[in-house]
Amino acid sequence: MQIDTRELACGGLFVAFAAAFAYGTVDLPLGSALRMGPGYFPLMLAIILGVLGLVIIFKGLGRAPSPIGGVPWRGLLFILAGPIVFGLTVRGLGLAAAIALVAAIATLASARAGIRLMLLLTLSLTVFCVIVFSYGLGLPYALVGPWLAPFLPGR
Amino acid sequence: MDLLQNLAIGFSASLDPVNLLYCFLGVLLGTLIGVLPGIGPTATIAMLLPITFGLKPETSLIMLAGIYYGAQYGGSTTAILINLPGESSSAVTAIDGYQMARQGRAGPALAIAALGSFFAGTVATMLVAVFALPLTEMALQFGPAEYFSLIFLGLIASVALAHGSVLKALAMITLGLLFGLVGTDVTSGAQRFTLGIPDISDKLEFVSVAIGVFGLAEILRNLENESDRQVAIKKITHVWPTRDDFRQMVGPVLRGTGLGSALGILPGGGAILSSFAAYTVEKRISKTPEAFGKGAIAGVAAPEAANNAGAQTSFIPMLTLGIPANAVMALMVGAMIIQGIQPGPNVAIEQPQLFWGVITSMWIGNLMLVMLNLPLVGLWVRLLTIPYTVLFPAILVFCSIGVFSVNSNVFDLYTVAFFGLVGYVLIKLGCEPAPLLLGFVLGPMLEENLRRAMTISRGDWTVFFTRPLSATLLVIALLVLVLVFLPSIRAKREEVFQEEG
Amino acid sequence: MKNARIVAVVAALMAAAGFSGGAAAEDYPTRPISMVVPFAAGGPTDTVARLVAESMSRDLGQQILVENVGGAGGTLGASRVAKSDPDGYTLLLHHIGMATSAVLYRKLPYDTLNAFEYVGLVTEVPMTIVARSDFEPADLKGLIDYVKTNKDKVTLANAGVGAASHLCGMLFMSKIGEQLTTVPYKGTGPAMTDLVGKQVDFMCDQTTNTTNQIKGGKIKVYATTTKDRVASLPDVPTAAEAGLQDFEVGIWHGVYAPKGTPPEITAKLSAALQKALKDPLVVKRFADLGTAPSTEAEATPEGLKTKLTSEIERWRPVITAAGVYAD
Hints:
The structure holds three protein chains of three kinds.
Chain A: H1 5-24, H2 40-60, H3 73-89, H4 95-108, H5 115-136
Helix pairs in contact in A: 1-2, 3-4, 4-5
Chain B: H1 2-14, H2 17-35, H3 41-48, H4 57-82, H5 88-102, H6 106-139, H7 144-157, H8 166-180, E1 183-184, E2 191-192, H9 206-224, H10 243-264, H11 270-285, H12 298-313, H13 315-321, H14 327-338, H15 347-350, H16 352-383, H17 388-407, H18 411-428, H19 433-456, H20 463-466, H21 468-500
Antiparallel strand pairs in B: 1-2
Chain C: H1 2-17, E1 33-37, H2 44-60, E2 64-68, H3 75-82, E3 90-94, H4 97-104, E4 116-132, H5 140-149, E5 155-158, H6 164-176, E6 181-184, H7 188-196, E7 202-206, H8 207-215, E8 219-224, E9 250-258, H9 263-276, H10 280-288, H11 301-322
Parallel strand pairs in C: 1-2, 1-3, 5-6
Antiparallel strand pairs in C: 3-9, 4-7, 4-8, 4-9
Helix pairs in contact in C: 2-9, 4-11, 6-11
């Protein structure tokens, strides 16, 4: 028998989410339909989601696989890393360095960008953002964070 | 004639050169900032609030209001150009607007959005001026039961948002509803699905989820095509809408304006529903529903008009009652207090030049926006010619800063990454992200109002049917349900053939 | 305005550069100060903070930037400040929730009484007991009687767990010895909308939220929760006058610094705060909000410390009895 792997994965993912959310309601009081507790509504939704997921799987059985297409693994890695690195460094390194890091990481996501483009983009984006966000909009974040303090020339 | 007198007071205030200048500054800043992906009007107004301390009260409110609708204009621009909605309202515009851009019709899409918004803004401003007070009384009739029925209707209708499988759209809405429940349960105060992380103990941040499932996922999808030199965006054929485009936008703009104006008045977040609702209506009544999701003009014009009309009329509860309907209005109320004006039912009587000045300035601001934005269309369109390798790092940087500026919380950035991954995987598996976002926004409202209505009625289910407004809405929901499923039986058969073929 | 900002940012850079030398307390402040408000921008607490920050900035010669770090009933912002460097450049402006969250939250990421230095009290916003405009009882006594005989019908709104209206509502219920059906909302805005729209019966909330609705005749008022009548509502009796003794609640606001901040710095900040509270503009705006600045004796580290300690003990039995927790 043929199986549409895309539908299988899709339904499976929904079922997995449903199970995770249902598990999350275990500790929550359910209450009754007339006096709903915090767990009632989400559990109902999780059940609905699970059923929908199963129906999607069921309908995928006996069908030819749908094309999924390639996955840009390199892009996936670097694009998702961008915001995370920004989050990890913006308080410690400050806004300027965090911006530079994200810009550099993001350029790495593309196979086409060379080292020259990366440096150019990093520099120009950092300068642009510092001017717009720090000076223009006055975001209340330190440009240079405490981690960098020891490396700066003292007074 | 009272109204004429009031409008005269209003225009004399809003046409004051200083106010005019700040109105222009407001819409200009709003547009520019709205165009930066990830930074929405709430963050912008919060950042610029201190600047207005030195201004006269009406000047500062005129400027802040300008930023608000300016940013919404700008937000639609990024939604259309790079599939990055900064707000729930422009999430709908992104569906067809971005498809138009990919087909080389970014110019017409932007122009239609601008013109539709201007028309809607004009009509809605008139409505505010003429009916502000009676409309407020009507909006107050909306209790928890009515809100529940309205949101329920919205969810039923939103299945139309998907242009693929109805089943998957339903699953995405449900998943969105569940993600929307993460955080503190308002009714009991219990923490749900927070995994013990204090940063999400209130809720997941909307901006993070939206940027993740739309923005990041879109960048990833574009990176797929990198190896084969197939450029995602086709050559731009013309910058301005054709006569045919104009003909196609009239109906949707009119209907969108009506829906948006009506829903925007409701203080409980009716404006959120307006663009979703307008899109749904267009798709239902269209002779070519299959064109939706593939760059339909009505799919841009209607939600844009609705969204702008709703944005204008959402000032009504703020101005007449002093009760903010959303985060932006809360900031406006804060600005008024800092200026020494007590927002409340008396503002219209005690501060006529402020009340009517702000209302008339909204129309002037909309006029400025359309004059500002139409010439800019050419410039924005040219942005698309920037090589993608250069464009997406910039998008990622702006998004990171924008998300961070919402709550100054680094955890929101990790949320972006998580939803970027989830969104991309789901898109890969044939699921559209828009219904998920709608569910996310409406989930907490649906549950809250359901349980609140039940608490007030002491567990009596019949309130939903005995209150006339609520009952009417539920009957409409039932009708929509029938409408959705009847044609979809036919559509589904076609879909099966398509997918197998 | 723009120039001031550029100067401020340059100053910040220079100050950051001077970090390794150790910023001397005498020079303080040499760069902008961040004042964390643990609630969303635009709310009553944010407004209080911005008014005070603006005035204190002028005195200190450095801008105080208000940073909104909302979430988890204000504990997220408080915990951010508790973990910040104790150099006087990160401050916290929090309200009564500082005391009540110590009881409402069983596991807080900081120790309320030992994680902060105190700068001083800012203001105490009075509360009012208000109801929908067509609610039957005519006065506070009538309200208490009505509530006792109709407790299955009456609904008491609040703005969510830990909100001022929630605290006041709990105190009211414990005073009259009844448990009523509460209807929680997400914030004051929607709760007030439903009160004006007559969907719920009554509520107890800050004057900052209720004064204008009262003056506009959109809601009914029974009493204020203050010792003396509130200046902006001269016709409204205090709870004691109206027949409910010992029902004084105020939403007091205080400024804190992380533990270990040098005493010279907190002293400088206290002095600036006291000056700000005498600033005619601040006094005027506070009066518009229906509140008054704290006295000079209260706007001191000791004043705030005393208040915080006594308030924690005051609310502990009320919250424990109600059995509500936020986590």
